C-alpha cells in the first residue's frame, strides 16, 4: 500500500467518523495529527538526543526524559502549532465574529415582528400577501444575521401562526419560511462567502460583489413562485380581510416603513456599501455593523445586559467552532497532500477526461449529497479544498465556482432527510404541522435552486457584472 492509498483511507475514515457523529473539528485534528505522525516519522531525528544519552551512560530518568522528548519531536506537532497560529492571525476571519455579533444582537432587537406586520400591510393587495411579506422579511433579516436557524425559528414563531390563522395551506406556508430563511448564507454579508474566500484565496470583496445579484435573483425566483402559485391556486393563500390587516392610511404605512424597514435596510446597505465601494475592509465594515446592531437594539429599547451577554456568548461559541474547523482542516489537508492524496485524486479526476460542464455537474452533485449529513461550514472547510486545485485544469474560475457552491448549499437546509430548516421550524410549529408537510412544502424551492444554478451557468454575466464594474476585469 502506497502513501497515496493511506491518504485516501484517511479521507474515508473522516467521512465514516462524521456519519457516526464524531465532532468534525476534533476528528480532523485527530486524524491530521495521527496520520501526520506516520507521514513525518523520522526516528533518527526524533531520538537523536536519546541515542546520545544512551551512549553517554545516562541514568534511567534522563533516558526516559529524552525518549519522551523524542516522541514529541515529530514535525507534525510543529505543523499543528503553525496552522493554529496562521488561522488565528488571518485578517479575513476577523470579520466572522463581528458579523456574527451583529446578527445575534439584531436578532434580539425585537424588529422582526414590526417588520413582518409592516410588510404584510404594504403588500396586502398582492396575491399570497402574507407569504410575500414572510419571504421579504426572511430575506432582509437573513441578510442582516446570516444565521439560518435564528431566522427560521423566529419566523416560525411569528409568521407561521399568522398564516395558519389566515387559513393558508400548511405546505405553502412552511415552505416559504424554510426557503426564505436560508438566503442569509448566500446574500452578503454572508459568513459562508467569507469562509469560502479564506479557503480558496479569493478576495472577499469580489466574492461579495459576485454574490449580490445571484442572491437577489434566487429570492426573486422564490417571490415569483409564491405569487404565481397564489394566483393559480387561490385556496392556498386566501386574501386577507380588513380585520386581518386593519385600516392604514398612506401616511401611517410610510411611518411604519420608516420605523421598521428603513433602519435595518440602512444598516445592511451601510455595511455592504462600505465593503463594495472600498470605504472599509470587510473586518472594518463588520465592526461598523456590530456597532450599528447595538445602536439599533438600543433604539428599539431591546438592549439589555442579558441579551448582550447571550449575543457575546453565542458569537464566541460559533467563532470558536469555525476557527477550530479551519485549524483541523488545514492540518488534515497538509498531511493529506504530503502523503500524495491530493495528487492521487487530481490524477484520477483528470484521467476521466471530463469536459468542464461534466466536472461542474459532478462537483455540484457531490456537494448536494454532502449537504444531507453535513453543515455548510464542514463542506466548505473540508471538501472545497479538494476541488479548488482541480479548477485550473478545467478552466473554471474559483469565483464562479464559489457562487454555484453557495447557491447549491441552499439545498443543504432544504433536502430531506437532514433538512435542518425543517427541524428548526418543526421545533416551534403547532402540533398539527407534520414534518412530512414541511418537507413537501420545501420541495418546489429545491427545484428553484437548481433552476437558479442553471440560469447562472447559462448567463455568467450575472456573477461577473458587479465585480467587473466596481473593480475591473480580473486577468
TrEMBL record:
**Where is this chain primarily localised?**
membrane
Arranged from A to Z, the UniProt key words for this protein are:
Cell inner membrane, Cell membrane, Membrane, Transmembrane, Transmembrane helix, Transport
Locations listed in the record: Cell inner membrane
- Sequence intervals crossing the membrane: 6-39, 92-111, 131-160, 172-196, 208-232, 253-279, 285-303, 315-339, 354-372, 379-396, 402-425, 445-466
State the annotated membrane topology for this chain. Multi-pass membrane protein
Residue span, TRAP C4-dicarboxylate transport system permease DctM subunit domain: 11-461
Protein family (similarity comment): Belongs to the TRAP transporter large permease family.
Q: How does it assemble?
A: The complex comprises the extracytoplasmic solute receptor protein and the two transmembrane proteins.
What is this protein's function? Part of the tripartite ATP-independent periplasmic (TRAP) transport system.
Any idea what this protein is called?
A: TRAP transporter large permease protein
Species, as recorded: Rhizobium changzhiense
